[in-house]
Structures are given as structure tokens and as C-alpha cells.
User: Which sequence fits this backbone?
């Protein structure tokens, strides 16, 4: 034992697809990530954020009620240290740039493999 | 007006979806111009397109195909709601990926889903053309329909 406690991170998954939320939850392989909740749109994500204070967020962009781009800006305003990985089908560079400018830390296009997901999360937590 | 060469991005997006999400490639037939109102399968995911281009993109598939696709995606829920979710997600992914070529002014809606024999409404716009891209995966057939100005 080296006496170093492993830091844990609270994870929130935001995507309007139940299938995608379950896929991300099932495929991520980080013991230090504790899932604190999932949301299907930006508005619900903000509510969930206030209750659970996550450290790491996976964020879809095309969602009803409040899209991911707006939600990223709001989350970063509430917690500047939050780490956000965008997971979206939108594959144009301008959208990725806008998400990063709003405060996202990584961008992964759908569809993705388990390996791509885990590499992107690892990069996010580095 | 939608040109046949522009369909390449949808063909590539569909091929990529099955290769990555289902780990098994699909075979796509040659796209052809849609005439009239072709039959749909049991589940249809529809994306409305606005911005620089207008129209709809929809993916229509039978329940049997979606069930196997869910199995390949390690899903255990095969309910009606999950089928609706999947068909919408496929349409969303293929349409969203097309922004790699069409750019961010190719604005996609959140998916809407039709079930049974209900057919998507194709907007009447000057210059709009509709193509059908046949999709064969394992023993199942589905279609991607691209109707754009």
C-alpha cells in the first residue's frame, strides 16, 4: 500500500437517448467514476447538477428543451472546474470548436467504440 | 437541389454506423430516386432538416432488424420504447454525421418517431429531390430516405 488514496469523480451522463445513456454507463471502465445521475435534456441536467455536483459530464448536443451547447455554458458558469466530454453525432468542426469555446474539454463523435469512449474519458480526467 | 454525389456522405455514415455500433457491416444498394410514397417498415426515425438545406432524412426498419441490432449493442431491453429510441438514434447519428460535409448550417432536429404504417411527411419545396438508399444487414432490409432541397 502506498498510502495514496485514489481520487473519485462524480459522473453525470446527459443524452436524450436511453440507449446511449445506458451504453455510456456500461462501457466506461473507470473504477474512480461514480455515476450520480443521468438526464435526457439540458434543463434536467442543470437540475441534476444542483443536486449531485458532478465532476465529470458526458454531454449530447442535439436534445429537446435545452441543447448541449447552452447547457455546457451554464454548467461551466456554475462550476468552472467541471470536466465535460461532448458525445455527439454532429461531425462538423465548427460545432466542436463552439463546444470547446463554451467550456467543453473533449469531443467524441457518435458512433463510437468502447475503446474510443474510454480513451476520451481518460484524456478528460488527466 | 440534392445531387446524387451528395448522397456519398449518407452512404458512408450508414456504413460507419453499422460497422461501429453493431460491429458488422451493412451492404448498401445503389441509391435511386423516390417516386410516390414508398412503404415504410414498423419503425421510422425522422430528422427534419433546416438551414442551408431543407427537407427530411428518415431511417425506416423492421422490428426484427432493430431487435438484433439492440442485441449486438449489448442491450437487454427490447420494449417498444427502446425500439423507438433506437430508430431515432440511428437517424440522428447518420444525419449528424452528414454535417462533416454539409457544415453546421445543415441544421438537424431532434428525432421524431413513427410506428406502423405512418409515413413521414415530405415538405413540398422547390428543387427538393428524394433518394432511397437500400440497406441490407444480416438477413434484414431497411431504408434510408434523403429528401433535400
Assistant:
Amino acid at each position: 500500500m502506498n498510502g495514496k488514496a485514489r481520487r473519485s469523480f462524480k459522473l453525470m451522463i446527459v443524452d436524450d437517448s436511453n440507449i446511449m445513456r445506458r451504453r455510456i454507463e456500461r462501457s466506461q471502465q473507470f473504477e474512480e467514476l461514480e455515476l450520480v445521475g443521468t438526464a435526457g435534456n439540458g434543463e434536467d441536467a442543470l437540475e441534476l447538477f444542483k443536486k449531485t455536483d458532478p465532476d465529470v459530464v458526458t454531454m449530447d448536443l442535439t436534445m429537446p428543451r435545452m441543447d448541449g451547447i447552452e447547457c455546457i455554458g451554464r454548467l461551466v458558469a456554475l462550476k468552472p472546474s467541471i470536466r465535460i466530454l461532448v458525445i455527439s453525432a454532429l461531425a462538423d468542426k465548427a460545432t466542436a470548436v463552439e463546444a470547446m469555446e463554451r467550456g467543453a474539454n473533449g469531443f467524441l463523435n457518435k458512433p463510437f467504440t468502447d475503446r474510443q469512449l474510454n480513451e476520451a474519458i481518460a484524456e478528460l480526467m488527466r | 437541389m440534392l445531387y446524387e454525389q451528395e448522397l456519398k456522405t449518407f452512404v458512408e455514415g450508414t456504413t460507419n454506423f453499422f460497422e461501429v455500433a453493431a460491429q458488422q457491416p451493412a451492404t448498401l444498394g445503389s441509391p435511386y430516386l423516390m417516386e410516390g410514397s414508398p412503404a415504410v417498415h414498423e419503425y421510422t426515425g425522422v430528422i427534419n432538416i433546416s438551414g442551408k438545406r431543407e427537407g427530411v432524412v428518415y431511417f425506416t426498419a423492421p422490428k426484427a432488424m432493430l431487435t438484433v441490432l439492440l442485441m449486438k449493442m449489448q442491450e437487454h431491453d427490447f420494449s417498444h420504447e427502446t425500439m423507438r429510441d433506437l430508430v431515432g438514434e440511428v437517424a440522428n447519428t447518420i444525419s449528424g454525421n452528414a454535417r462533416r460535409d454539409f457544415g453546421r448550417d445543415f441544421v438537424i432536429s431532434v428525432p421524431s418517431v413513427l410506428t406502423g404504417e405512418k409515413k413521414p411527411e415530405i415538405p413540398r419545396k422547390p428543387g427538393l429531390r428524394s433518394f432511397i438508399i437500400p440497406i441490407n444487414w444480416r438477413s434484414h432490409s431497411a431504408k434510408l430516405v434523403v429528401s433535400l432541397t
Observations:
- The mean pLDDT of chain A is 95.
- The longest strand of chain A covers residues 33-39.
- The domain at 9-125 of chain A is CATH 3.40.50.2300 (Rossmann fold).
